[in-house]
């Protein structure tokens, strides 16, 4: 190749680099050739590449024959693969990307099934609030977005309902352990139940009942006050050997620990002293 042709090729190196980059070609060069090409490209970048995309749009396509047999001034050959092979590589890349998308979709569906199975096993053992179930599933290292999607699905199907859970929990603690509204609300808040659901559940348990429609006394229905008094009477009778002041203090601690306010506590103690006067 003549010296003029070699200079022409060196002048076209910036455009050649753009073409090669767009085709994602791998060019094996010696270290000396790479250094020479790099110095030439730096010089060209200071001029032609300052125009950005405009210079790229004006790039003149180089014939395949020149690309395959071009030489540098030092006589070292630059072997390039045919353009047709690059088109085949691009097609293979597109096919691989499509297969990868299908694989990711399949993996995602598998993870969703695993999360659903784990959630059902947990709910089969006992009831959970939405917050509790989310924490349990996250502890198993499942993806957060998949967990949220499964929980939303379960809520729409009625498998998760914080309102039902709060009312069931409140009624159970009230009837079996004589917990008051304050302690039940505290426990439900720790379980992540929203404030509105907590208030509605405790109101149904302590204020609504057979005497629905009547004004509740101290925030508790008449049936609830009767149930509380029956449980407090048992505790009062167990402390017959104590002095009146000690029995009062013990009853106050018993009622306050279970979450009853001072108005309810005072009313219960006065009724106990009236019905069970000291000897």
TrEMBL record:
<protein>
    <recommendedName>
        <fullName>Regulatory protein RecX</fullName>
    </recommendedName>
</protein>
<dbReference type="Pfam" id="PF21981">
    <property type="entry name" value="RecX_HTH3"/>
</dbReference>
<dbReference type="GO" id="GO:0005737">
    <property type="term" value="C:cytoplasm"/>
</dbReference>
<keyword id="KW-0963">Cytoplasm</keyword>
<comment type="similarity">
    <text>Belongs to the RecX family.</text>
</comment>
<dbReference type="InterPro" id="IPR003783">
    <property type="entry name" value="Regulatory_RecX"/>
</dbReference>
<feature type="domain" description="RecX third three-helical">
    <location>
        <begin position="225"/>
        <end position="269"/>
    </location>
</feature>
<dbReference type="GO" id="GO:0006282">
    <property type="term" value="P:regulation of DNA repair"/>
</dbReference>
<dbReference type="InterPro" id="IPR036388">
    <property type="entry name" value="WH-like_DNA-bd_sf"/>
</dbReference>
<feature type="domain" description="RecX first three-helical">
    <location>
        <begin position="118"/>
        <end position="152"/>
    </location>
</feature>
<dbReference type="Pfam" id="PF02631">
    <property type="entry name" value="RecX_HTH2"/>
</dbReference>
<dbReference type="InterPro" id="IPR053926">
    <property type="entry name" value="RecX_HTH_1st"/>
</dbReference>
<dbReference type="Pfam" id="PF21982">
    <property type="entry name" value="RecX_HTH1"/>
</dbReference>
<dbReference type="InterPro" id="IPR053924">
    <property type="entry name" value="RecX_HTH_2nd"/>
</dbReference>
<dbReference type="InterPro" id="IPR053925">
    <property type="entry name" value="RecX_HTH_3rd"/>
</dbReference>
<feature type="domain" description="RecX second three-helical">
    <location>
        <begin position="161"/>
        <end position="201"/>
    </location>
</feature>
């Amino acid at each position: 190749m003549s010296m003029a042709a070699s200079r022409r090729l060196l002048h076209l190196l910036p455009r050649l680099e753009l073409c090669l980059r767009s085709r994602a070609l791998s060019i094996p060069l010696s270290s000396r050739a790479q250094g020479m090409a790099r110095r030439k490209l730096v010089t060209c970048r200071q001029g032609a590449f300052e125009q950005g995309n405009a210079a790229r749009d004006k790039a003149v396509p180089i014939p395949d024959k020149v690309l395959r047999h071009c030489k540098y001034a030092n006589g070292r050959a630059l072997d390039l693969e045919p353009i047709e092979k690059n088109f085949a590589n691009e097609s293979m890349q597109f096919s691989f990307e499509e297969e990868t998308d299908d694989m990711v979709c399949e993996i995602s569906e598998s993870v969703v099934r695993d999360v659903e199975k784990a959630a059902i096993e947990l709910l089969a053992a006992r009831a959970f609030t939405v917050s509790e179930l989310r924490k349990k599933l996250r502890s198993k290292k499942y993806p957060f977005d998949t967990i949220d999607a499964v929980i939303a699905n379960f809520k729409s199907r009625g498998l998760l309902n914080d309102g039902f859970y709060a009312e069931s929990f409140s009624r159970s603690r009230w009837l079996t352990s004589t917990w008051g509204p304050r302690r039940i609300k505290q426990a439900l808040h720790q379980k992540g139940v929203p404030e509105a659901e907590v208030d509605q559940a405790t109101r149904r348990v302590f204020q609504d009942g057979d005497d629905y429609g009547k004004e509740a006394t101290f925030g508790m229905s008449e049936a609830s006050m009767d149930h509380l008094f029956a449980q407090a009477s048992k505790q009062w009778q167990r402390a017959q050997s104590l002095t009146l002041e000690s029995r009062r203090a013990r009853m106050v601690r018993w009622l306050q620990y279970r979450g009853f306010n001072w108005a309810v506590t005072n009313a219960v103690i006065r009724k106990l002293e009236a019905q069970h006067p000291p000897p």
